[in-house]
Structures are given as C-alpha cells and as structure tokens.
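agent> Task received from the user: take the single chain below, predict its 3D structure, and emit structure tokens. No templates, no multimer pairing.
agent> Plan: (1) validate residues, (2) run structure prediction, (3) serialize to tokens, (4) report one or two observations.
agent> Step 1 OK, no nonstandard residues flagged.
tool_call: predict_structure(input=
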Amino acid sequence: MVKNNINDYSGIAIYAEQKNGKLHSVVPELIGIAKTLGKNLENNKIKVILLGKKIERLEKELFSYGVDQVLLVDKPGLDFFHEDSYTTLITEIIQEIKPEIFLGGATNLGRSIFPRVSAKLLTGLTADCTELEIDETSKLLKQTRPAFGGNVMATIITKNHRPQMATVRPNVFSPAIEDRSLEGEVIDMSYINIPASEFELIEYRQEVTGTKTLEEADVIVAVGRGIRGADSLPLINELTNKLNGAVAGSRAAVDAGWVPYHSQIGQTGKTVNPGLYLAFGISGAIQHVIGMRSSEVVVAINTDPNADIFKIADYGIVGNLFDVIPEMINRLNILGGINESN
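)
tool_result: status=success, residues=342
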C-alpha cells in the first residue's frame, strides 16, 4: 500500500460494532466523544461504518445519536464476525473515505480487528484509551491510556500517518444524547467485494449465564484475593441476587478460578460504571481501579484498614465478609430487596 498525503484525510470515522442486529453499548459512547472532538476540527463530519446482514434498521438508531453518514455494507457473508475478511473490508472503506480519525471500541472484537487494520494502513494505534482530546495548537488527536501496569498515564500522538486510530474502553465516555428527529445520509458500500475468510465457522453458541451481564447490571458485587477462596462465593451470590446485580472479580480472583474471565474488572478486563459497586477483599491496586473508578457509589469491605481501596471508596467497612454479608442480607430482607422498579 502507498501512503497518501496526510492532508488528504479529514473528518472522523467510527466502527459501529453490532451483534445479532443490536449495537454494542460502546457505539453511542464513541459517537459522543467524536462529537466533542469535532468541535475543535475544521471538518467535524462523523461517518459510521456498519457491517452485517439485515441491519438496515440500525441506520435510524445511529442517526438519532447525531452521525452524518452511515457507510453500510449489508449482505450475506457478514452474518458472523471473521477477523480476516472484516479487516480487509474495513481497510478498503477507510482507504476510500480517508478519515483523519478512526475510532472503535476496546471490546473483544475491537481488540482483534483494529491492530490488523492499523497494520494494513501503515498507521499507529493507541489501544484502550481512557481520554481523547484535540490539541489546540497542532490539532492532533491526543490519545491517553494507562501504561506500565497502570502506574502512569501515557498520552500518544500520531504526527506523520493517517488515520489517527484509537480504541476506547467501554463505559468510560458519556454516550451521545439520543434524538429520534435527527436524520442523516446512508452510503451503500455493498459494492465492495467481501474477501473469503480463511476460517470456517463450525458452530456458534450463545453463552447463557442466568444472571445479568456486567454491562447491564446497575449493581456489581466484586471479589478479590481477600475473600480467601471459593467457599465464600455462595454467600456472595446470595447477596448479589438480593441486590439484583452481577458478580465480578479482580484479576487475582479470576486467576484463582473463583470468577470467570469475562467477569474480570480492571486494566486487562472490563470497565464498568454501575450505580453501586461493592468491593469485597479487593486491595485497590491501580490495575483494578482503572476498571471501576467511574462507579457512582463504591462501598469497600476489607479486613485491612489500610487497604488502598478505602481511598477511593465512598463508604468503607472494616470487617470480615462472613460477618458483614449476613447483616446486609438481613437489612435487605427487611427492605424487601432491590428490584427493577426501585
């Protein structure tokens, strides 16, 4: 590929991740930050790449968040995600529209596909960003992300290559405000050939957990190394059910096998912002805090009064979970628990 002049690039493009005809929750957040960035750019037009099969109805939803154009490829062969064919398809679209900035979510899919696209475009990529802004003087995108195990925050710029690419962690930025009266332009790009994938999908199975996902839950009960073992989980689960919430864990809890990987919170896991975050036996290392610090209310329960988690907690309880949780459950029984309506 021959690199084009960076002056040929303008505007902002977003990859709108969808699954089974439903947009990923990070998409409105990407649009929200794109609109903020656009205020400091000469060309603030927002284009969204939408790939899939029978997904036309998502166009209106995207327009309601304030995007200008939807670049649509809706055809057979895009039913399921294949990273090689998707990479080639997205790369061709980016080469055609030449955005100055290209954003995506730091999801499992985004972490798989964006490095491949950036390599094909011969440009840089800053992954897992927690802050994005336009430099007032240079008009370059300042991309900030945790580095060195989360001990420092690094700000990265892409001076000489385009597009400036970044993925952002879900639940970090505020989503764009929805307005159903807004309209935009659909650009049908289905004329682009879908390259055959080198992978064959044998079977697709939807995981069924029976509980809320971390993205859906307004209450999260998280456990760390301090719970001492899996014997504590029945009590944790009982409390979580009473709160109509979801169970999560630190990396230590995941590595110990107490909590599944998809429920890990932190730098190498998910970022969440529930209304209530209960942290049991979590020390408060920065690697974990990065994933939950935007929670509305944080309650820390730990036997160590000097644990770092108390520094960021709104409320702290020094005590053993086997003493604290039964009392919490008792109070919830008196109140009637938490349900969807209160």
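agent> Step 4: summary for the user.
The two ends are 56 Å apart (CA to CA).
agent> Done.
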